[in-house]
Amino acid sequence: MTAHIISQGIQPSLHPGVLRKIGSIISIQAPMPAKAKGNRISVITNGCAWLGYFVRVGVLAIAASIVPAVAQTQAQQDRIDRVSRFAVTSSICGRLGMTVDPRLGDKVEEAFNAEASSWSLGRDTFERLKQASIDRAVKSSAIDLETASANAKTEAELRRLRTMFVAYGRMCVEATTDPIFSRLITAPAGFDPQTAATAFADSMLEGGGLASWQTPAIRARGDMMMSAGTCRKRIGKDRSDALAARFGRSEEARTREYYLKSFDIGLNDTEMNFTLAQCNRLISRNRLEIEKVGTK
Predict the structure, then answer these.
(1) CA nearest neighbour of 227 among 174, 269, 168
(2) Residues 255 and 155 in one domain
(3) Model-level pTM?
(4) Are residues 8 and 144 both part of a single domain?
(5) Alpha carbons within 13 A on the beta-carbon side of 260
(6) Which of 139, 174, 205 delimits the end of a domain?
(7) Which of 111, 106, 92, 240 is nearest to 182 (CA)?
(8) Coil, helix or strand for 99?
(9) Are residue 256 and residue 173 in the same domain, yes or no?
(10) Which of 5, 159, 237, 260 has the lowest tally of Cβ within 10 angstroms?
C-alpha cells in the first residue's frame, strides 16, 4: 500500500517542479560559436607542397599570437565551473529556505564578465567556455534529479533524496561566501543544511509515509486509512468510517493531516478495484502491522 501511495504522490512531485525551476533560472546565454569553415591550411599544404615552409612559419606565428587568448588556466576553468554550479543550484537554494535575488541570472553575468575582464581570454572564448560549463551543470543536475526520481521505489532510495539535498544545501552555503553570489543568495540566521534538506525532502516524502518524522506506527496507520478509503465501496460506509475514526486521530496536526490525506487518496483511487475478500485480507494485514509496530 505504501508503494501505491508513493506512485501516487512522490515521483510526480519531485521531477517536474524542481527540474522546471532548474531549467528556468539560467539567463546567462552566450552566443554559440560559429561553425568552422574548414581547415584552410590543410587544403593549401595538400595542394601546393612548395608553400609548406611558409605555411609552417605562419602557423607557428599564429599559434604564438593566439595562445594567451585561447588557453585558459586550470584556475580560470575551475572558477567558471564554480560560478556555473552556483547559478544552477540557486533555485534549490530558494527551495531550501534561502533568499535568492530574482535577477540573479543577469547580475551573475554582469559581475562575472567584469571579474573575467582581466583574464587573458578573448570574449568569444570566454563565452564559449562559460556556456559549455553552464550546459554541463544543468545537465548534471537534471540527471541527478531524474535518477533520484526514477529510482524512488524503496524506502532506502527515497531517503537518499535527503542526502542529495544536504549536498545541495552545503553548496548553497558556499555560494553565500562567494564574491559574486554573496550579494545574491542569503541564508537566514542559523541556517543548517541538514535541517533545511530534511524539511525539503520531507515535503516530498511525507505523501508516501517516508518523511523523517513518520515512524513505522504512523506509516502503518496511514496505510490503514488508505485501505479504509480504497475499500469503502466494498466494506460499506459504517465499517469505513469506523476504521477512519479509530486510526485517523492524532494530537499532532501534521500526523493527523497525513492520515486524512491517506484516506483521501484511497477514496480517489480509480485503479485499485479490490473485491470484498481482497479488502478483508488487506485490512487484516494492516491490523497485524499496527499491532507489530506498536505506537512508536
Answers:
(1) 269
(2) no
(3) 0.60
(4) yes
(5) 8
(6) 205
(7) 111
(8) strand
(9) no
(10) 237
CA 78 to each of CA 75, 128, 156, 173, 212: distance values in angstroms, whole numbers, following the listed order? 5, 15, 34, 18, 36
Q: Among 205, 250, 257, 260, which residue's Cα sits nearest to residue 229? A: 260
- The HSE-up count of residue 217 (CA atoms within 13 Å, CB side) is 10
Cβ-count burial 84-94 (b if 16+ within 10 Å, e if not)? bbbbbbbbbbb
Highest mean pLDDT among 66-70, 209-213, 224-228, 292-296: 224-228
Q: Is residue 48 part of a domain?
A: no
Mean pLDDT of 193-214: 86
Three-class secondary structure of residue 191 per DSSP:
coil
Q: Does one domain contain both 77 and 181?
A: yes
Please check whether residues 11 and 131 belong to one and the same domain.
yes
Provide the β-strand partners of residue 186: 99
Q: Which amino acid is at 120?
A: S
Reference 159, options 10, 1, 4; nearest CA is 10
Element housing 203 (H / E): helix 193-205
Closest CA to 268 of 240, 219, 232: 232
* Same domain membership, residue 244 and residue 125: no
Distance of alpha carbon 278 from alpha carbon 254, whole angstroms: 30
Question: What are 45-52's contacts with CB under 8 Å, separation 24+?
Answer: none
The residue segments making up the domain with residue 148 are: 2-33+73-205
Grid cell digits, residue 218: 504512523
Q: What is the pLDDT of residues 22-31, one digit of tens each?
A: 233 223 333 3
Could you tell me which of 45, 57, 153, 172 has the C-alpha nearest to residue 104?
A: 172
Question: 121 in helix, strand or coil?
Answer: coil
Strands (E) in the chain, as ranges, are 99-100, 185-186
Task: For residue 33, name the pLDDT band (cuts at 50, 70, 90).
Answer: very low
